[in-house]
Amino acid sequence: MQLYRPRRPGRISDGAIEAAQILRTGIGLAATAWLVFRYPLQESASAFALDRFSDAFTAAGVLAVAGPVALVAFVLAARSPRRQLLWRRLGAPLGGFAGLFGSGLVVYTLLREDAGVRLTGQLGWLRFPGLIALLALVLFVTAFGLASVVLSVHFVFRVGDVHEVLPPLLSPLLAWATFAFQACGEGPVAAPASVRLLFLFGPPLSVSALSAWELGRLRRRYGVTVRGALGR
What we know:
By secondary structure, the chain is an all-alpha fold. Helix content is 74%, strand content 0%. It contains nine helices and no strands. The chain has helices spanning 15-38, 45-77, 82-88, 91-111, 115-120, 127-154, 166-183, 193-222, 226-229. It is globular, with a radius of gyration of 21 Å. The two termini are 35 Å apart.
């Protein structure tokens, strides 16, 4: 899924930053597993899994709406000729947006009012092979779409290809937006209030702290700053 992985030539790739992100993700998964096994679920296991997928879709939706606005604002805040350079780099995140929306549009078009089935019905004796091909296409695009949701959130729609400071700037926005949605609902487990608050505030606070550390490391190790990114 190279469509979602930043790969601009010359982009700063710091092993410590990537390791810290993986470590935070691992700690989060381990903590979630402990929470589920330590306290009884207030919903079925399938509903719990569906809620976790919903969180990923929510995060992708927030990025899909806020991401382009933040990118355009960031580029417009830059001085020329830095602004022209950033404009040219916008193709990378636009490709990520197109992949996510394109996969969803294909599935919606094929399944809407059985459009795919009606289309294969016009193929005559090729109707059965057409149905098999249609099913394979829907399964592939659905899997691609689900992977796109996860990867687009993980790589923040490849905004790192526009500039290295953008992922740590946008990640807290994503984390706190997800927090706002989760705060409006009930917790998935019957845990004490202190534990629920810890798991509610822990993710956005840890993402914010990691982003601040990442920005600091970029400044100290590579001389990369937000002001420098804007040419100011």
